[in-house]
Amino acid sequence: MKNKIKSVKGTYDLLPSEIYKWQEVENKLRSIFSLYNFLEIRTPIFEKSKLFSRSVGEFTDIVNKEMYSFLDKGKESLTLRPELTASVVRSYIEHNFQQISSIHKLWYYGPLFRQEKPQSGRYRQFYQFGAEIFGSAYPESDVELIDLAYTIYTKLGLKKWTLYINTLGKKENRNKYIGVLKESMLPYKDQLCKNCKNRFDKNILRLFDCKNRQCKKVMNEHAPLIINHLSVEEKDYFEEVKFILDKLNIKYEVDPTMVRGLDYYTNTIFEVRSENLGSQDALCGGGRYDNLVEDLGGNSTPAVGFAAGMERLLIAMEKEKLFKNESDKLDIFIAPMNENVRKKAIQIVKEIRYSGYSVDMDFQRRSVKAMMREANRKNAKYSIVIGENELQSGEINIKNMDSGKMETVKIDKINDFLST
Ligand code: HAM
Description:
Layout: H1 16-35, E1 39-40, E2 46-48, H2 49-55, H3 61-66, E3 68-71, E4 77-80, H4 85-94, H5 97-100, E5 104-113, E6 125-134, H6 139-155, E7 161-167, H7 171-185, H8 194-202, H9 213-222, H10 232-247, E8 253-254, E9 268-274, E10 282-288, H11 292-295, E11 303-309, H12 310-319, E12 332-336, H13 339-354, E13 359-361, H14 368-377, E14 382-386, H15 388-393, E15 395-400, E16 406-410, H16 414-419
Parallel strand pairs: 1-5, 7-8, 12-13, 12-14
Antiparallel strand pairs: 2-4, 3-4, 5-6, 6-11, 7-9, 9-10, 10-11, 14-15, 15-16
Helix pairs in contact: 1-6, 6-10
Bound molecules: histidyl-adenosine monophosphate (HAM).
Histidyl-adenosine monophosphate (HAM) binds at residues 83-85, 114, 116, 122-123, 126, 128, 130, 132, 261-262, 282-287, 289, 305-309, 311-312.
């Protein structure tokens, strides 16, 4: 028996039959990011492990359980990036962005790695696009990002999704609230699932995310909400975000139990959730993180951003039937009838390609019938069979593959024919 090597669990191949959907979405994303005047940044796939433990948070699921970390030959711990905000912040600090301008609007796109349990919409290598604004401490920059995410899903034609917002307040106030939450929930700790009991001391906010029925019930009945523990300033900030969202006609719901799974957030957080994705329903998530640049060694810089999963977006778009069938890509398929004409055919192929038309030809020296089947399979608009007669007369027959209509054209006038 042959011993075939399979792909790694939680990863997938993007095959040519699917990739056009990705390219269509990627092109639209690029044009929307430029409408909003965000500039692209690309950072390495792997970083020093401590970048993520210091930013995402030591007690988060991502850092605790999901990172692909390894020691390199110099015994340094490196990690395949599980998210991009930390990498972009590292780059922002390393390249002194602050000295170039007091505000930066950046976007990114690329693969990330998390060792999660794979299921539909959850992979071990997955793609995110996202955007970050550095240098504004004002609600209009929160809204700029929320509006950007909103516009992306709207312009891509998705219908079945909802934007949720909440606020976590600033770090000091949140820490006070965490104390209140612990105190309120301590009498009910025994009623929580094993996972929540483990999270109780180190990451109690995540109790709000537990899907266990009993935990949900206990939290609903007894957990105080952060929204009721905000300072006047934090409340005002959130009100202003909502006010501008209303002005822009952006529809949202406040989810007072949303906490997000990463430690760096301050004030506004948001998520877009699809109705078509089952349990992995978050299309995108983000929020403000005013302490992170300083925590990673930079000057104090307010920042806000979001990131969005590509696979989930593609699944949701498929479910809403937003992709047309792949459009015809190939202009011409050329079928040389024998050895003698093949060399001339190769020349013709090259000339037509240089004029800007896509051309393919037979590479397997097959029969005319087989070559025509191939032209059909490749969705060619036209096919040209070239034989001795054509070479001698200098004229070829171009067949319209849809209508079957044949037209005789001089070999050196093929480009003129195609351009009419
Ligand atoms: P996140 O919520 O961890 O946030 O991820 C953002 C999005 O990435 C999710 O809403 C989901 O669509 C997608 N995603 C996450 N994990 C997976 C997975 N295993 N498989 C497929 N898709 C996945 C962040 O990453 C933050 N850096 C967002 C941010 C940017 N906050 C501020 N700026």
